[in-house]
Amino acid sequence: MASGLRVVDALANVEALRGPGPLLVLQTYSLEILASVADRLPKSTVVTVLHHVGLSDEVIVELSADELVSFGDVDHLTSLWIDGLRTAGEAMDDLVAFMRRLRAECPWDQEQTHASLTRHLLEEAYETLDALEAFVRVEDGHGSAEATHVEEELGDLLFQIVFHAELGDEEEISISPPSPRRARQADCRHRTSS
């Protein structure tokens, strides 16, 4: 048994599956349930389908989450293994740690201020908007290059935001965690707009 293994009932809820892993997902006995699990994972997540393990017709195959419904032999002896899930929180922690390392080790990063970085933030915001506009103009299913460009630009924009947040943290201005008042405002805003 792997360290930290979590056993998950595919029917227990419909919330996104979260890390860390590994996860053993049980009760995955129909295409509908595989589709439900796939909807709860990032599309590129590698999932190992365990079908009839230990029997003469054993099948063990790796698929991306968005390919799960292509496994047509699913039945009551089918389970899923997900080695690990990188959560948004873990990814943000890594990005913040990287930014802190740059601020500590790189002379250029050490010299930057909110004022010196403002044009970079604005530039990345416009580049992200341009990438998104190009992406939405592409016909369905034919925009993989545009999707990759959007991912890159969103990453660049996020990096600028984290840079400003790190500068703010050094000045005792924090964006994390949000205050209870700010969280209530966002919650109310989103409930009233739907």
Which key phrases capture this entry?
single chain, 194 residues, alpha+beta, Methyltransferase, Cobalt-precorrin-4 Transmethylase, Domain 2, Helix Hairpins, 2 domains, five-stranded mixed β-sheet, 5 strands, elongated
What's the SSE blueprint?
Elements: E1 6-9, E2 23-26, H1 31-39, E3 46-51, E4 59-64, E5 78-82, H2 88-105, H3 107-111, H4 114-137, H5 144-170, H6 180-192
Parallel strand pairs: 1-2
Antiparallel strand pairs: 2-5, 3-4, 3-5
Helix pairs in contact: 2-5, 4-5
Tell me briefly what this model is:
With 194 residues, the protein is α+β, with helices and mostly antiparallel strands.
Description:
It is a single chain. With 194 residues, the protein is an alpha+beta fold. It folds into two domains: 6-82, Methyltransferase, Cobalt-precorrin-4 Transmethylase, Domain 2, CATH 3.30.950.10; 88-192, Helix Hairpins. Helix content is 49%, strand content 13%. The protein contains six helices and five strands; from the N terminus they run E-E-H-E-E-E-H-H-H-H-H. Strand 3 (46-51) and strand 4 (59-64) form a beta hairpin. The radius of gyration is 22 Å and the shape is elongated.
